[in-house]
Every structure is written in C-alpha cells, then in structure tokens.
C-alpha cells in the first residue's frame, strides 16, 4: 500500500495511491491518519490535481552514517561496524517537488540517496524480532549535505541540518522487502549513484534496535539508513532525483538562496 500526504484546496489529508501508470494515479482519501486503524473514504482525486507534501512530519529524523563500505571509502574512511547516528531536525524536511535551498554558508552541496524507514507506533528498546511490527513503511530520502561545512566542523548540525536538507517522498510504501532494493540518484537525468540496500553494513533491523535502545521513537519518526557510493555536487538549477526500487521517485530542484 502506498500512502501519500497531500494538500488540495487548502486542506491537508492522507490518501492511498491507486493505479500503475503515473499519469493515471489517484488518491483514495483516508479517514483519519495512517498510524492507527483507518478506513478509506471512497472519495478519490487524481494525483495530478494535488500537491504532494512530505509523507510524514517527524518529531525527529535519525540518520546513520558510513553504513555502506563503498561510500565510506570514497570519503576516505571506513564503514561504521557499530551504527553511527546523527540528527536532522524536523525543519529540514521537505517533500517531492519542493525546492532545496542552497545554503549561503556553503560552496559544496552534495546529494546522498537513501532508503528511509518510517516508524508507525511509539516504541522503545525494540527487540530484533519485533522490528517489523513498529515500521509503518519506507520512503525515499536525500540526505543533502554541505560537504565543505561537514569537513570543517566537528559537529554536523549545520552541514546536514539546514532548512530543506531532508527531502522525503513521494509516499510511504507499507508492503516491501527492504533487504535488496536498488537505490539510484540522478542529477539532470545523469546517473550519479547506483547501489542496493543489500550493501548496508548494518541492516534496518540493526539500526532500529540500536537507536530505540537509547530513545523513544514516535509515530512518523524517520530513520535514514545511509547512502551508497557516488555522492557528488549539486549546483543552482540542478534537478536531483532519488529512485528506490518498489517505492518510486523523489524529485527536487536546487535553487541558490538570493
């Protein structure tokens, strides 16, 4: 099931995406929210008539670094054998079609295509065998990074937490085997990254167990699982697209702050 969050005529709602062809997709509006039992209203609107929003508004985005060995190597380091977490604030989140604002304090902006895990229920100290029970589904993410700032500052708060640095979308896929999905990033139609979630050093289960041992996760919280090799620069006017097998494509344009 694909669950989207959208706005139409000034109203915000969740809906289930139906259809196979992009130009024929429709949304069946959900009664309520997707973090509990819900019903479909039967009221359907064409996807082309709505504005897609970030599929969730997380209280926190927990991101894991150096979780692909080839990416760690291209950055001059080694993969993190034990999960290595950092935060991106809720104010960094935008949706598919929204603009990535190139920050004024950086001269080197990079894309990082990632599988994002969306938490579906409040949980803490989740045992490995129950991880699947606390996950609502999966979406595409772009961990946009001010690489020069990341190198310069020991803390990554500004480098990875600036406004618009966490595009998510286009929707949440709830029925997905996450173990071996192709993860791709293109810039202006040219492929930059291509990997698979099977290359993760620490699995989705590892990451959920690790972070939930330290803190409570709330419905709508997001976990970013790391990026494969091929990260690279973004320029003013670029269109960057993250595509994950079985989910869809997250697309954003980069615009320099005036």
Helix content range: 10-25%
- Output the CATH class name of the largest domain: Alpha Beta
Q: Please give the largest β-sheet.
A: 12 strands, mixed
Computed over alpha carbons, the radius of gyration is 17 Å
The first-to-last residue Cα distance is 40 Å
Please state roughly what percent of the residues sit in beta strands, choosing from under 5%, 5-15%, 15-25%, 25-35%, 35-45% or over 45%.
35-45%
How many domains is the backbone divided into? 2
Q: Helix count? A: 5
Please characterize this protein's 3D structure.
It comes from Streptomyces fragilis. Keywords: Hydrolase, Metal-binding. One of its GO terms (molecular function) is hydrolase activity. Residues 1-55 form the Rv2993c-like N-terminal domain. Strands 1, 2, 3, 4, 5, 6, 7, 8, 11, 12, 14 and 17 form a 12-stranded mixed sheet that branches. A 5-stranded mixed sheet has the order 9-20-19-15-16, with no helix packed on it. The protein contains 5 helices and 20 strands. The chain has 2 domains: 2-52, SH3 type barrels; 61-256, Fumarylacetoacetate hydrolase, domain 2, CATH 3.90.850.10. 12% of the residues lie in helices and 42% in strands. It has 258 residues and is mostly beta strands. The chain has helices spanning 69-74, 131-134, 147-152, 157-161, 204-212; strands at 2-8, 11-18, 26-31, 39-46, 51-52, 61-65, 84-88, 93-94, 99-102, 109-111, 113-119, 135-142, 145-146, 166-173, 182-187, 190-196, 222-224, 232-234, 239-244, 248-256. A hairpin with a 7-residue loop joins strand 2 and strand 3. The longest helix has 9 residues, at 204-212.
